[in-house]
Design goal:
Blueprint: E1 2-6, H1 15-27, H2 37-54, E2 57-64, E3 67-78, E4 88-97, H3 106-120, E5 125-127, H4 135-143
Parallel strand pairs: 4-5
Antiparallel strand pairs: 1-2, 2-3, 3-4
């Protein structure tokens, strides 16, 4: 297995991996419903292309036998005005590992590569959003030194 940086030309190869993560997210409890897998992928693919085109993003693909078995997408930008976390902050926008390759170090290799990208971009900190009911993902990121920082609460606009 190796992790390499990739460009927009590889985005289409990621759809099956995104679909597996979408299915996982759809099965999580205590959350709003999800969009269809096709709509979700179309929206994310558009974001990936836009982020890569903006110059403040990197796509990292984990390959085994020349095939993608996981990927990470890292963006970075100006640090927040309130919190002293650095002038530049990175975000791990996506991290996906194929089910058959989980537990084999692919996710850890992608986190490590994402941290290198973030450091090279000048970021001291890197965040990731995780659904509160996604216990396996929370444990994984905590093992890699991530700690809770900020909670996003959702509420209906009409009550």
């Amino acid at each position: 297995m190796r992790v390499c940086e990739a460009g927009a030309e590889r985005i289409s190869e990621l759809e099956p991996l995104w679909a597996s993560m979408h299915a996982h997210h759809s099965a999580l409890g205590e959350l709003p419903g999800t969009r269809s897998a096709a709509d979700s992928w179309a929206r994310r693919r558009k974001q990936y292309r836009s982020w890569l085109g903006g110059g403040n993003a990197r796509l990292l693909v984990a390959e085994a036998g020349g095939e993608p078995v996981g990927y990470a997408f890292v963006t970075w930008g100006e640090g927040p005005p309130t919190w002293e976390v650095g002038e530049t902050v990175a975000e791990l926008e996506s991290l996906v590992v194929a089910d058959a390759h989980r537990g084999g170090g692919v996710g850890s290799a992608l986190v490590s590569a994402a941290r290198e990208v973030a450091r090279a971009a000048g970021a001291r900190q890197m965040g990731i959003g995780v659904a509160h009911s996604n216990a396996p993902a929370l444990r994984f990121y905590e093992r890699h030194g991530f700690r809770p920082f900020y909670s996003l609460l959702l509420g209906e606009t009409a009550r």
